[in-house]
Specification:
By secondary structure, the protein is of the alpha+beta class. 44% of the residues lie in helices and 14% in strands. It contains 16 helices and seven strands.
């Protein structure tokens, strides 16, 4: 095998390991076969895997609200909410969201601001905006009925191959594979694949494997079972291999490689930022809020005027804050007392946010900013969709 690509070598040894775990199987495929046909796991091994996995799922599946409905809309909402968010966090949001927007048409008819208010706290707000946009597309193009073909579903805003496959396999038992964080981990261990699972080659291999494993029946349950196994048993650290229904079929377990498969992702390098948020009040006590613009963090949500600063101090604000606020809003303000310092993280940023009271001295909101800036009563803050730190700051304002 000298000179063969590393991925080919890994797959070769994986197939050999699987065949050793499956008696009476055909010989290994030729190493010079095309990549698309090289991954061919034994049919008996696949059948045993599906049988054991589905039996385990029937006994151990969690009772989750989106598993109790064939409604494609509800399944879609759950799948979008579950992206990069834990199940325990999603459940109450899912139930409240479906109570407020029970149908695609109800969601499409709502204003984006209201949708984001009901999404507030889940983070990754682009998901909420795209969910709303997709609902409007469904109403316009599909008469308010969630489409049932892969091509139509994957064409909707915010829906990719995984989400389309999950919705249609779970809701319609369509024979479509899925690949997300939990299944990536399970499948890479079932393949004993030590390569980068997020590389082009790794993704191609895992998608092919996911499709090859699909049974002819109960595809929706099978896909959910793969995800459930990854969430409950085949975990990133200290997987419960002795409780796994697939342990005797798993070459990674047999070789004692669970600690290094899948290969760990490269650690994120965080950038430290210091910012100031200014709670500006006019003579009547109204508060100025600003809607985050497209391309900014939390686009579509409201926040207090926020600017970058260079000074790390809190008690003595950076003099540049006043000029930055004037540039952002068109208003001349006088900074007041320090309210609080909040620390939070957004994607690759770690932000220290110094918050100040301020008084409007002079100036008008620029015409170009009329849609982005609004004077409101403190009592109205509750109804606005605010970013996380905006909500924390608003609570301090109301309480103080």
């Amino acid at each position: 095998m000298h000179g063969l690509p590393l991925t080919v070598v890994r797959v070769y040894w994986t197939m050999e390991a699987i065949r050793r775990l499956t008696p009476h199987t055909p010989p290994s495929p030729r190493m010079d076969a095309p990549a698309a046909t090289r991954l061919q796991t034994p049919a008996r091994w696949r059948a045993v895997l599906a049988t054991r996995l589905l039996a385990w799922f029937r006994e151990h599946a969690r009772d989750l609200p989106w598993r109790n409905t064939p409604d494609l809309y509800a399944i879609w909402v759950s799948e979008i909410m579950l992206q990069q968010t834990q199940v325990v966090t999603v459940i109450p949001y899912f139930e409240r969201f479906l109570a407020r927007f029970p149908t695609v048409s109800a969601l499409a008819a709502a204003k984006e601001e209201e949708v984001l208010r009901w999404w507030e706290g889940l983070g990754y707000y682009r998901r909420g905006r795209q969910l709303h946009a997709a609902a409007q597309v469904i109403v316009a193009r599909h008469a308010g009925e969630f489409p049932t073909t892969f091509e139509e579903v994957v064409a909707l805003p915010g829906i990719g191959r995984y989400t389309a496959g999950a919705i249609l396999s779970i809701g319609r038992n369509a024979r479509l594979p899925i690949l997300e964080a939990n299944t990536i981990r399970v499948l890479s261990r079932l393949l004993a694949y030590e390569g980068d699972v997020y590389s082009t080659a790794g993704q191609k291999l895992l998608w092919q494997f996911a499709e090859e494993l699909l049974p002819n029946r109960e595809v929706g349950h099978f896909n959910q079972a793969l995800m459930e196994l990854g969430a409950l048993v085949c975990t990133p650290r200290a997987p419960a291999c002795l409780e796994c229904p697939l342990q005797k079929l798993c070459p990674t377990h047999q070789a004692g490689l669970t600690a290094r498969i899948p290969a760990p992702k490269q650690k994120t390098r965080y950038e430290e930022l210091t910012e100031a948020a200014v709670v500006v009040k006019d003579r009547g006590g109204k508060i100025l809020v600003r809607r985050c613009q497209p391309g900014e963090r939390w686009a579509g949500l409201w926040d207090f005027p926020r600017v970058a600063i260079s000074s790390p101090g809190a008690e003595q604000p950076d003099p540049a804050v006043v000029a930055a606020v004037r540039k952002l809003t068109g208003l001349e303000v006088e900074l007041g007392a320090h309210i609080a310092t909040l620390k939070h993280g957004v994607t690759r940023f770690r932000i220290t946010l110094h918050c100040y009271h301020a008084r409007r001295r002079r100036g008008k909101v620029a015409a170009a900013q009329h849609d982005a800036l609004r004077w409101i009563e403190a009592s109205e803050l509750h109804d606005l969709p605010l970013c996380t730190t905006g909500r924390k700051l608003s609570a301090l304002i109301i309480a103080g």
